[in-house]
Amino acid sequence: MTDQSALAARIPSLEGRSVLCVGDVMLDRFVYGEVERISPEAPIPVLRVLREVAMLGGAGNVVRNLVALGANPHFVAVVGDDLAAREVTRLVGEHAAVDPLLIVENDRQTTIKTRFFAGGQQLLRADQETLVLPGAGVQGQILKQVATLLAKVDLVVLSDYGKGVLTPTSLPALIALAKAAGRPVIVDPKGRDYAVYAGATLVTPNRKELQEATGMAVASTEEIVAAARKVMADCGIANVLVTRSQDGMSLVLEDGSTHHLPAEAREVFDVSGAGDTVVATMAAAMAGGLPLLDAARLANVAAGIVVGKVGTAVAYGSDLVAALHHSDLVAGEAKVLTADAAIEQLERWRLKGYRIGFTNGCFDLLHPGHVSLLEQAKAHCDRLVVGLNSDQSVKRLKGPSRPVQSEAARATVLSSLGSVDLVVVFDQDTPLDLITRLRPDLLVKGADYAVAQVVGADLVQGWGGKVILAQLAEGHSTTATIARMNQ
């Protein structure tokens, strides 16, 4: 077993781990649109808004990533009494695995970060926030909640975004409580004074934050290691993981060893929230019993995954397994994805202006008729997605003797075709739900259907897409082939 395969085998140990996350929650809003002209009022672009997305940011994004990895987070944070707080509460409530303890402070503005995008580029970020320390009563509530929860958790994460929730007084108290309970502490730090994190098991600054905290040069690997060791010596911190953007990560351990991990990203779309992913992966991995170096290797892979996604994204355990196996086996993008992963891939393709096509079927025994249909479909689009009926779905549609090949085998054969860019297995009898989620620009079926009979045709046409009926290659049928084999 290779190192990568051995690491992939440890990922199930992350599931079910209980992690306490305390820190600055915020609401991340993403506004996507098109820029076609310059404003007559000032030399600025006019954004025509097409859609908006809201998701948890800051410490909330750490929690989202913990959930994606199968962990069970307890979440302590402070919000205001406002609409943004209600949206944060709703978004947290979408994750059944999270135990939320959101403390309301009436005079506080819940932090909102709004990012505006056009043509795959971020144009502007607008922040709404309160940068004051919570009142003594709220700080006391935080410490009380943490003291109550420590017996239930494997590890503590302090996500400090400098919005005031984690204070110079509360931070040492929180770390002391965790240490007394025998719980490791990971800190995503902010500011220049890392002495407030004394006693932490691990801090995870990026290169710029490390430079600001030490006043030292951090251009080279040697300089980064020296700065990390200064933080460890001066501030009483056990270990430091420095994220270095395109240069990967450097892990400096209390035993004196250092480890440098090259960046894993194949293509960078958006770095928003990548640091949260690193912290969450480290937390889940350490809680699952992985050594710090193996945890850092997983976090490095996770960071490479999320920067290839759009918006404040998360890395799922299945993403990590696929990425680790991918590095062992093949070059190029994996073609067989879950529906959630496919949605994210389609978003990246759309940002490049690609036209997305979709067709579906059982594809039990691939024959020239299938190949012809797929090639015709690909001729009308830039990227072709194939919805593949699962084994159970095929049995319901074709009878108990089908499929002849498993869904894994069928997906492998389909993904080997140059005309197929993505395969998504679905378990329903029809692909309607999958079409609704993927929102293709083009829907392709064989000419033995009328447009009105094509499942999802009304939906695709409703959002401006087209339905194409492909010509059938005569004399080819899986059912007929199987019948001949049984004669």
Largest sheet strand order:
5-4-1-8-9-10-11-12-13
Weakly predicted, low-confidence segments? 328-333
C-alpha Rg (nearest Å) = 25 Å
CATH class descriptor name of the largest domain: Alpha Beta
How would you sum up the global shape?
A: globular
Number-wise, the strands total 18
Under CATH, the topology of the largest domain is which? UDP-N-acetylmuramoyl-L-alanine:D-glutamate ligase
Largest sheet: 9 strands, mixed
End-to-end Cα distance, whole Å, is 45 Å
Describe this structure in words.
The structure is a single chain. The protein is of the alpha/beta class. Helix content is about 35%, strand content about 25%. The chain contains 17 helices and 18 strands. Strands 5-4-1-8-9-10-11-12-13 form a nine-stranded mixed beta sheet, with helices on both faces. Strand 2 and strand 3 form a beta hairpin. The longest helix has 15 residues. The protein is globular. About 0% of the residues have low confidence.
